[in-house]
Amino acid sequence: MAAAASSTDRPGALDITRRLTEICGPPFARLAGPADEVAGRPARWVAVPGGPHAAAEVLRLAARHDLSVVPRGAGTKIDWGAAPDRVDIMLDTGRLAGIGHEPLAAPTAEVGAGTPLRAVQATLERTGQRLAVDAPSPGATLGGVLAAGEAGPLRHRHGSPCDQLLGVRYLDADGELVNAGGGIDGLELARLLCGSQGALGVLVSATLRVQTVPASRIWVTRPVWTPLEVHDLVRTVLAARLDPAAVELDLPAGAGPRPRQGGRAESMARHPSMTGRASVGPAGAGAGRLAVLLEGGPADVAERADRLVTLLGGRSGVSHSAPQWWRRYPFGPGDTALRIEVPIADLHAAVYALRDAAGAPVPVRGSAGLGVVHAALPGAMAPDRVASILAAVRGVLLARQGRCVVVSAPAAVRRAVDLWGELAGLPRLRAAKEHLDPHHRLAPGRLPGGL
Asked: Does residue 79 contact residue 410 with C-beta atoms inside 8 Å?
């Protein structure tokens, strides 16, 4: 913070503070504090504009003084990705909140970028509706979910939140309010902002599809021990055409080979009386879990659940509530968090490659039905060790049209490794940055390639 504090003492800094206060109001503009940082990079000022026009004034002020602006929602993913080159003004979107007035049971909803996702869902549920958006970050805002390209288990059936966009309103680097959507070109621009970490525009609001809340939800779970077993089971689930809403995997570091059983115990496990019961005792010790969510009408969901239990075998179980690990990342604060994306048929190869490179099982969790999972490496692991693991895993994925990116990491690791790996879309991203933010004032350095 010392560097940030001293930088606010230079001539003109007090004038900027005064102007931000005039734009946002006295309680909503201030010098940054110790907690106001982005991936470890401290901010100089924090501005919390009360609406789109005030946010536009903040951006115009930044443009006049050649200051960088980095948007922040709830801050749940503020340490994801690369650290920006500098953070002059942190633009907090907390007051860009609310849900547009739509007719009852309308198929769309316009939501302010700073609106917490759980508040959106609570409001829609009053009319029996929902967004098919279940990002894992607790307390996340809709704008933060879109800006980070975050998605949860429901992406299996409904796609990511960015796939569900019908349009956005955003502010460009010069403070102009832009409506994107309503056509192929508009949607392409709207979805380009997804995952951009605020480096292409500041989201003001987004319009998404809504749907009726399913009458019934059932989770069918089964213990798993190896990545190859997961591969076979996922293939079985998808081939059965049971229309799952999600197919999720939790494979903890402690999961090992399947425990051996005597002939009698094995026979009892396969007995029809055991169908639908969760395994107990040694048979389930150290196991991971494959969980399949089924949604729809009560009779239909029950029939599909029965079929799935038969397919998965006697150790499968049925529940009307999600597993404890559902919608939770396998990494915690301070860990090196990885995201692996690979064709479903090669997911097991990616997990084995990660285990081999790390020299031990690594916790893996995510959407096995799509080949998108997260993994965690200990935060205390040396940066050069992390770099060697990444190189080994990316080498395996390259031949399988997959990729591994570092979602977040300790500062030493972030400085030492390539966070992104090979990125085929980098030229397009560079062109978009030059078009939308030619002076690199919006979150400079947050995008791949230092954009």
From this structure: no
